[in-house]
Design a protein that fits this description.
Tetracycline Repressor, domain 2; Arc Repressor Mutant, subunit A; 2 domains; 9 helices; mainly alpha
Amino acid sequence: MPKVVDRAQQRRDIGAALLRLLAREGLEEVSVRTVAAEAGRSAGAVQKYFSSKDELLRFALDLTGERATERLLRVDPAGPTKDVLRRYVEATLPLDEDRRAEAVVWAAFAVRGALRADFGAVLAEVDREVRGHLAELLGAALAAGRIRQDLDPFAVADALIAVSDGLSVRLLYNPDDQAVLLTALDTALTALLGAGTDEL
């Protein structure tokens, strides 16, 4: 009886090896051969799923975006808006090994996205999804009178994405400042939401 191969699982396993390699060595070191070595497979086995470096990189970008989106969807939306937003932003920050690896990959792709429109489009789509989630949450809080009525949910969502991006970069090169930077997140949330609600 022929062996049944779970192609989706094989791609995920190769993808996990790819993300490890990207986080450790950077984009320049990615090739079918180096990913195969990291995954403990032959180059031919990897080429069954990815025929080129570009295909590998695009898969890594998609996988990183999917993981970030899944984490955001798991954030508990209950509680004061400021606390919920803090949990959303924390879910995007490199505060553990997996998220750190993803943040390294994301930062590398941000640079590549400035030079390659196809990569930039994927990054922009993830930003749009995150912006939509945040604006929906803020819109519900606005409708319920839990935040200031003059706030624009989309403008606040854009500001939160900018705060998240900045904190992520700083945590990558200075992880020892985690406590200081999380305090800065609280300061930013208070500044964005303002005073005058029962949540602050």
